[in-house]
Amino acid sequence: MRKQYSLRAVALAGVCLLPLAAVAQSFDLGTAAPAPAANQSKEYSGEVEIGGRYQSGTSPLFGRYTGNDSKGFGSLGGFHVKGGDAPSSGNTLYYEATGDNLDFQTNHRGPNTSYLPEADIDVKAGQQGTWAAHANYDAITYTGQTFYSPYLSSGVAAPGVQTGTAITSAAQANALSNGLVQQTAGTRRNIGSVDGNYTNGAWTITSGMRHEHKEGTLVQTLRSPNSGTAFAEPVNYDSDRFNVQGQFATRRLQLQLGYDYAKFTDNNTFFVAPYLSSGGFTSQYSLPPSNDAHYVTGRLGYNITPTTRLNTNFRYGIEMSEDAIGTGTATPTSPAVANFGSAANVALYNSNPTVGLMARTYDGGTSLVSHPITPLDLKAAYSVSGRETSNSPTSFYGTGGGDGSSAPLHYNVVGQSWTKQKALLEAGYRILPSTKLTMGYAFDTVDRNAGNAVLNAGDQVGYWVGHSNENTLSAKVTNNAIPDVNTAISYDHAVRTGNFEFLPGSTTSGAFYQAPRTADRFKARGDYAPNDQWSIGVNGKFETNSYHYPNGMTGTKRDANATIGPDVSYSPTKAVTTHLFYNYEQIYYVNMGNGAGSTNVAASTTASSGAVTPASTANGYGWSASTTDSVHTVGLGGDWKVTDRLKLGIDYTFSYGDVGYNLYNGIIVTNPGTASYVNNPTLSSVSSSMHSVKLHGEYELAENITLLAGYGFDLYKDNDWSYGWNPVILQNQSSATTPFYGLTSGESNSGYRVHSVYTAVRFKF
Predict the structure, then answer these.
(1) Average pLDDT over residues 294-319
(2) Alpha-carbon span 274 to 378, nearest angstrom
(3) In the chain, what's the furthest Cα-to-Cα distance?
(4) Which residue has the higher pLDDT, 743 or 293?
(5) Which of 126, 567, 592, 684 has its CA 20 to 30 A from that of 503?
(6) Three-class SS of residue 624?
(7) Would you say the C-alpha torsion 102, 105, 110, 111 has a positive or negative sign?
(8) Which residues contact 230 (CB under 8 A, 6 or more apart)?
């Protein structure tokens, strides 16, 4: 995982013990040569950085991935040591140890610890060409949103929060609001791994183990008659991996056979909390089940001729779940009950709490790459992958999704089995000394099987695409005819067809990414490097997908995304380097829904005004909802080597993003208030901006001592209307004479303004 390094999380410090070189004594033995110093056959070097850091403000968003989320002081540090046999000794033993981000902060908002939040310690040793050993520790923290909740992470109600009573008055709502607890979500991952290899001739044996523990909380929302209720979902996971593989390699043949084992353990099974309404029920929220998997892999590479190579690989796996899917509490045990009762508003009933749900997976592929003549490259490839599930359909019963509705619902979860195959042909030919044309054709086919399911009227099950074929044509041109200029342009066109599968009583929604579609993709790149001073590049990409459905079906109709931006580097002198970049990205989605009136509305004329109201179309596309995300990012920076001892640098990044909503209702009905999808107002756009300035420098106090210092300023703000600190809202119900008070997840504003400074000393030895 690539970490995000910035001034807010400078990876510098810690405390370590410095290895001391042992100096041997030499004696004058007359004509005999003096004994060599012990360290003449060994070499080593290292450095240590120790410092401190101050942050001016508190913001979980600012320190989301670094652990530096609170105002206050912290430490900085790191180390690096490497050594081994000197080349003149004829031996090849080596070792190396590195520690980065060995820092902590005195204050911390989330439940994840503030000590060494992003630490990375790496140790390796070996003998070149014979053996190698490696150990690593990696810490990853995430600080989530600050929010209000009536629950503690243990599942009990917060002090002062009354349960089992419906909220029907402002006094009760205020009492609930005063009893809410402000919390900040967050997780901490501690990862440890060891691996090594041993080589003997053409054989190499490799093995490794990895253990990860993740603990903390995530923000979740529980739907209930009291609107949305936020709570901190407990996280307590353990993940383990083990692998061993053998490799055989000669100049012509390469073989590899391996085994992998993966295990995931959730140390919690449910989040159980009292229900904030009348009845005194208990609400149960299922957490990810424990599971494990076994995989066997193999690879083969063979050079048939000096210009032709064959590659083949396969993998077979068995995936199992160790936990049953829990049965909802306070819910009838029989789905035959016509009305599942008020308790069903609390939780769903699962009809198949099976242990050992299993899937078998397989992957395989082969490719042939050839360069028969100088201007021609050829490639042919075939791959297949599949997943076979052995579990029967799982049914859940409830009412109205927990929103107070008494209408019974039946959700049927069906495990899909599928087989995917792909064939590829590609040819590249250098039509001119400076121009190469590459053409390709790919054929993809997918077969999905959702098994047999017995459903009742009103069952909530969407469609899937049982079989689909996709044909893709591609072309790419690279050219370097102009001196110092390299360009590349590629275009792909893909058409996918498919058969929709439905179950009796199913709804018309489903996985849009399986639906038939037409896709077009365009990429372009250009680079210009006339000399050592200038380097100019530009990249662009555009992709669009249009999805096709039978009449009356709804879903995502079209999506598109585009990126473009130049990147320029300039060095007026050897002591100065500058860099400028700009990137624009746009993501567009348009979704269509039905939302038609329950009956057709005939055209009518208003007598007084003569206005004509056109007829509506039942079961038509009643509304569309499109979103357009646009992001502009620009950055510039520079480094200046003022003297041999002094180096300075500056970086500035500005980013502006905007999310635009466009809602449209195409249905005209006699009473607009009869359906929530009629006359929806267009949502306000959400925009955000971020400024980030970094100043850094280092000065060499002595040959082995360097002073480092830096300053950062980060400013972020947005107008997201989903954030707010008022957790209790008043809802008017047209069918109730008493106002209804609902609970929402009051979340903190995401903006921040933070200054940070650091200083450190680097010692070399």
Answers:
(1) 96
(2) 65
(3) 129
(4) 293
(5) 592
(6) strand
(7) positive
(8) 147, 148, 149, 219, 220, 221, 222, 744, 745, 746, 747
Full-model pTM: 0.81
Q: Are 171 and 239 in contact (CB under 8 A)?
A: no
Residues 54 and 760: their CA atoms lie apart, in Å, by: 12
Distance CA(254)–CA(250), nearest Å, equals 6
Rounded distance between C-alpha atoms, residue 707 and residue 699, angstroms: 5
Token code pair at residue 64: 């989301």
Phi-psi region of 564 (alpha: psi -120 to 50; beta: other; left: phi over 0): beta
DSSP state of 292: E
Among the listed residues 393, 434, 397, the one whose alpha carbon sits nearest the alpha carbon of residue 417: 393
- Sole residue written with tokens 């009762």: 341
Residue with tokens 């099987």: 449
Contact status, residue 436 vs residue 399, Cβ threshold 8 Å: no
Q: Are the CB atoms for 716 and 744 separated by under 8 Å?
A: no
Structure tokens at 403: 């929103």
C-alpha Rg value of the chain to the nearest Å: 32
**Mean pLDDT, residues 133-150 taken together:** 90
Which SS3 state, helix, strand or coil, does residue 575 take? coil
pLDDT the model gives residue 623: 65
Q: Tokens representing 72?
A: 């206050």
Residue of 591, 613, 615, 556 lying closest to 677 (CA atoms): 591
Euclidean distance between CA atoms 222 and 749, whole angstroms: 21
Q: Find out whether 542 and 521 touch, Cβ atoms under 8 Å.
A: yes
437 Cβ contact partners less than 8 Å away, ≥ 6 residues apart: 428, 429, 431, 475, 476, 477
> Can you say whether residue 396 is alpha, beta or left, with left for phi > 0 and alpha for psi between -120 and 50 degrees?
beta
What tens digit of pLDDT does each residue of 195-225 get? Answer: 999 999 999 999 999 999 999 998 887 665 5
**pLDDT tens column, 710-732:** 999 999 998 876 665 555 544 44
| Torsional sign, CA 328, 330, 335, 341 | negative
β-pairing, 417-432 vs 435-449, is antiparallel
333 pLDDT more than 50: no
pLDDT for the residue numbered 345: 39
Q: What angle do CA 93, 94, 98 make, to 5 degrees?
A: 165
Q: Which has the minimum average pLDDT: 216-230, 519-533, 574-588?
A: 216-230
Instruction: Give the span between the Cα atoms of 654 and 644, in whole angstroms.
Output: 32
CA atoms within a 13 Å half-sphere pointing along the CA-CB vector of 304 = 11
Q: Which DSSP state fits 683?
A: P
Amino acid type, 673: G
91-105, 145-159, 360-374: least confidently modelled range: 145-159
